[in-house]
Design a protein that fits this description.
The complex is a heterodimer of chains A (73) and B (190). Chain A contains three helices and two strands; from the N terminus they run H-E-H-H-E. Chain A is α+β, with helices and mostly antiparallel strands and 73 residues long. Chain A has one domain. In chain A, strands 1-2 form a two-stranded antiparallel sheet. By secondary structure, chain B is α/β, with parallel strands linked by helices. Chain B has a single domain, classed as 3-Layer(aba) Sandwich (Rossmann fold). In chain B, 33% of the residues lie in helices and 19% in strands. Chain B contains seven helices and five strands, in the order H-H-H-E-H-E-H-E-E-H-E-H. A five-stranded parallel β-sheet of chain B has the order 3-2-1-4-5. Chain B is globular. Classes of the chains: A alpha+beta (73), B alpha/beta (190). The interface between A and B is large, with 46 and 59 residues.
Chain lengths: 73, 190
């Protein structure tokens, strides 16, 4: 997650390498409870998030984006 | 230890360490897939559904196509893609971890799929020929790379003209996460 980019930055990189017809198909918010189910995140990181993030942000600490694009013919 | 990790090798090691510790994950990513997709997998394969979306749902795979999944982990999306492209097609998983490659091969064998291949390699330097693939997919792996533009350039290189990219990945608004969270080693691994 620390390596994740903002959606616009990620999409820009996709287009910059040459892809066209980029479409953001889906966005799924990931809250702390969702992130806690990812076994790669340790309990102390989850606890840190609960302690440091305002409650109103607990339902969205990241967003999973699904995008499609095409290599030009 | 909290550090603002910047180096590719350090990040790769954190990811490798985290995945090597995984024993029996709970398959939290199954929620993103269709009932039909989940039902086509063994119980063991379902437990390794660790993606953050369902790029295959939007990849519009066709019979006979060649698909490459970048950072395939245990290869669940590879297995699903292999079924979609059928015996005349091929699904190839690329992952840097030998444990994941081995696990993917076992799952493919158990599923009786012979149009599946797994290759150990970095997604920043794909072990695939130029213009050899119809569709590139990735599910929750590109954010783990320190060289995302390089990964995307490699995806572009291996795709045939007209080839498609279908990716699910985490995005964040960095300014909304405290530095203590962003610099936590575990936050680099998932």
């Amino acid at each position: 997650m620390s390596g994740a980019l903002a959606e616009r930055v990620f999409a820009d990189k996709v287009e910059k390498v040459g892809f066209t017809d980029l479409a953001i198909i889906e966005r799924r918010p990931f809250g702390i409870d969702d992130v806690a189910r990812i076994p790669l995140f340790t309990p102390d990181l989850i606890e840190l998030m609960r302690d440091l993030l305002p409650v109103e942000q607990h339902d969205q600490v990241a967003v999973s984006v699904t995008l499609t694009a095409r290599k030009p013919t | 230890m909290t550090r603002d990790l910047m180096f590719k090798d350090e990040i790769q090691q954190l990811v490798a360490d985290a995945y090597q510790k995984l024993d029996e994950p709970d398959g939290f990513g199954a929620a993103f897939y269709t009932d039909e997709q989940v039902a086509s997998l063994s119980t063991t394969a379902r437990s390794w559904m660790l993606g953050v979306g369902n790029p295959l749902a939007h990849a519009r795979l066709r019979s006979g196509e060649v698909v490459a999944d970048l950072g395939c982990g245990a290869g669940v999306d590879v297995l699903l893609a292999a079924r979609e492209v059928g015996p005349t097609g091929q699904a190839i998983g690329v992952d840097m971890l030998p444990e994941m490659i081995e696990r993917g091969r076992r799952l493919a064998d158990e599923a009786g799929l012979d149009n599946v291949g797994f290759r150990r390699g970095e997604i920043e330097d794909l072990p695939l020929e130029d213009a050899s693939v119809d569709v590139v997919t990735s599910n929750g792996s590109i954010n783990l790379s320190a060289r995302k533009s390089r990964v995307l350039a490699e995806a572009f290189r291996v795709l045939r003209p007209g080839g498609r990219l279908a990716v699910s990945d985490l995005t964040i608004r960095e300014e909304e996460l405290p530095s203590e969270v962003l610099t936590h080693p575990s936050a680099w691994a998932g």
